[in-house]
Structure to design on (406 residues):
C-alpha cells in the first residue's frame, strides 16, 4: 500500500507552481543533524532548513511541546489570547531589549509588521513627510511586496507592477553614503546585523555604531531584521547583543520555531502603542501550537550551555574549512559569525557555489549557497562533533571530485 502511494519528484513539476527547483531526493525522516530520503540514503545536515532547524530534527523538547499542546488546543484566533503565546512573549522580553511582542507566522510577515509600525509611528508623531525607508543593497527581508521592495535586490521585486514607494537602497558598510543621504525625512533604517542571503557579510563595528547614531540624530527608527541571525545563531541570543547596538524594532522568525512556522517583532512600549486595536493583525499570529514549540526552543537555545556551544562549534567549522582549503585552495575567505558561516569562493571558482552544493549532496551532505559564489553553512546549534566530522569528511570527498574533474 505504502509502495503504491509513493510520490516522486516528478509530481512536483506536474502539480506545483514552478517558483522552486528542489533537489531530486525527497527527505522523509530526520533525527538530530541526520536526514534520510525515500530510499533510506543518509544525509548530514549542515543547512538546517536555511537557519531554521536550530535544534536539529525531532529534538525531544520540541516534539514533547508539540504533542502536549496538540492534545490541548490548536487554535483560537486573536479574539482570545492563549497561555503559550503569553508565556513565549514574556520569555522574549526577558532575553532581549523588547518590552512588547507582536506574533506573525514568518519572517516576511514580521518585517511587514515592523515596517508598518515604523510608518505608523512616523505618521502619528512627525507627520506624513517622514516616510522614507532606508535599506541596503544585497539585503533580504522576505517576499511580501513591501518587504521584497525594501530588500536590496531589484530582480526580486521587479515585474509585479508599481512598488510601495519611498524606499532607498544604499551600499552596506558605507558610512559616507549613509551620512550623505539620511535626513529628517527618514522614517526608518532596516538592516540585517549580518547579511545572510546577500553573501554572509558582517557589518563593521563602526558602521553599526554610526547607523544607530544617525538614526538618533534624525529621529529615525532602527529596525534590525534578525530573522536569520536571531535565536542563538551568532552565539548571542540576538546578534545586536554582540554588536552592542540596540535597535528600536527587531524582527525574528526562522530559528524561533525550530521548524514550526512563527515570526515576531519585539519593540518598546512607547513604539508599540502606535499599533492600536484594529491597526494590524493576523489570524494565525500567536497560534498556541507554534508558540508552545517556540517556547521549548527558546528554553534550550537561551541557555549558557547552548550559546557557548555555538562558539565552540564555530571554531570546529572554521578549522575544518581552513583545512579543506589548505588541501584544495578554493576559498578566499571564511566569514560570518557563530553558525552562520560563509566560505567565499576564490577567483578561480567564481560562480560555482551551486556546483559545490550539488557535489556535497551526492556525497550525502546538505549545505547551502548565499549567492553564486559563497557556500553557506547554517547547521543545528546543537550538532554533535561526530556529525560535524562526518559532514566534513563528505565535503572533502565532494571537493576532491570537483577538483579532479577540472
Ligand atoms: C529568510 C529571511 C526572511 C524571510 O523569512 P520568511 O520566513 O521566508 O518570510 C527575512 N529576512 C531575512 C534576513 C531572512 O533571512
Amino acid at each position: 500500500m505504502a509502495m503504491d502511494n509513493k510520490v516522486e519528484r516528478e509530481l512536483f513539476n506536474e502539480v506545483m507552481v514552478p517558483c522552486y527547483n528542489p533537489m531530486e531526493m525527497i527527505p522523509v525522516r530526520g533525527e538530530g543533524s541526520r536526514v534520510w530520503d525515500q530510499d533510506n540514503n543518509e544525509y548530514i545536515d549542515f543547512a538546517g532548513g536555511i537557519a531554521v532547524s536550530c535544534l536539529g530534527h525531532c529534538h525531544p523538547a520540541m516534539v514533547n511541546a508539540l504533542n502536549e499542546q496538540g492534545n490541548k488546543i490548536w487554535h483560537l484566533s486573536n479574539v482570545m489570547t492563549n497561555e503559550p503565546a503569553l508565556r513565549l512573549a514574556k520569555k522574549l522580553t526577558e532575553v532581549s531589549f523588547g518590552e512588547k511582542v507582536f506574533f506573525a507566522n514568518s519572517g516576511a510577515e514580521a518585517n511587514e509588521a515592523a515596517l508598518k509600525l515604523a510608518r505608523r509611528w512616523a505618521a502619528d508623531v512627525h507627520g506624513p513627510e517622514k516616510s522614507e525607508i532606508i535599506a541596503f543593497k544585497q539585503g533580504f527581508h522576505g517576499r511580501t511586496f513591501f518587504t521584497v521592495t525594501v530588500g536590496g535586490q531589484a530582480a526580486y521585486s521587479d515585474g509585479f507592477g508599481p512598488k510601495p514607494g519611498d524606499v532607498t537602497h544604499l551600499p552596506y558598510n558605507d558610512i559616507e553614503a549613509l551620512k550623505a543621504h539620511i535626513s529628517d525625512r527618514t522614517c526608518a533604517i532596516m538592516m540585517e546585523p549580518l547579511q545572510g542571503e546577500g553573501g554572509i557579510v558582517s557589518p563593521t563595528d563602526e558602521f553599526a555604531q554610526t547607523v544607530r547614531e544617525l538614526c538618533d540624530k534624525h529621529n529615525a527608527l532602527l529596525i534590525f531584521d534578525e530573522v536569520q541571525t536571531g535565536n542563538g545563531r551568532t552565539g548571542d541570543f540576538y546578534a545586536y547583543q554582540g554588536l552592542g547596538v540596540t535597535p528600536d524594532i527587531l524582527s525574528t522568525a526562522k530559528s524561533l520555531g525550530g521548524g514550526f512556522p512563527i515570526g515576531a517583532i519585539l519593540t518598546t512600549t512607547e513604539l508599540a502603542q502606535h499599533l492600536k486595536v484594529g491597526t494590524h493583525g493576523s489570524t494565525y499570529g500567536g497560534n498556541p501550537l507554534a508558540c508552545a514549540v517556540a517556547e521549548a526552543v527558546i528554553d534550550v537555545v537561551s541557555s549558557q550551555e547552548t550559546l557557548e556551544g555555538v562558539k565552540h562549534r564555530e571554531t570546529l567549522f572554521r578549522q575544518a574549512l581552513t583545512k579543506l582549503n589548505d588541501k584544495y585552495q578554493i576559498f578566499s575567505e571564511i566569514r560570518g559569525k557563530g553558525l552562520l558561516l560563509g566560505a567565499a569562493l576564490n577567483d578561480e571558482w567564481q560562480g560555482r557555489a551551486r556546483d559545490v552544493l550539488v557535489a556535497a549532496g551526492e556525497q550525502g551532505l546538505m549545505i547551502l549557497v548565499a549567492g553564486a559564489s559563497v557556500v553557506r553553512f547554517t547547521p543545528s546549534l546543537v550538532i554533535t562533533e561526530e556529525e560535524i566530522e562526518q559532514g566534513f569528511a563528505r565535503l572533502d570527498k565532494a571537493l576532491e571530485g570537483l577538483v579532479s574533474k577540472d
Notes: The CA atoms of residues 96 and 150 lie 25 Å apart. The chain has 15 helices and 15 strands. The pocket of pyridoxal-5'-phosphate is lined by residues 106-108, 111, 140-142, 192, 196-197, 225, 227-228, 253-254 (CB under 6 Å). The longest helix spans residues 304-328.
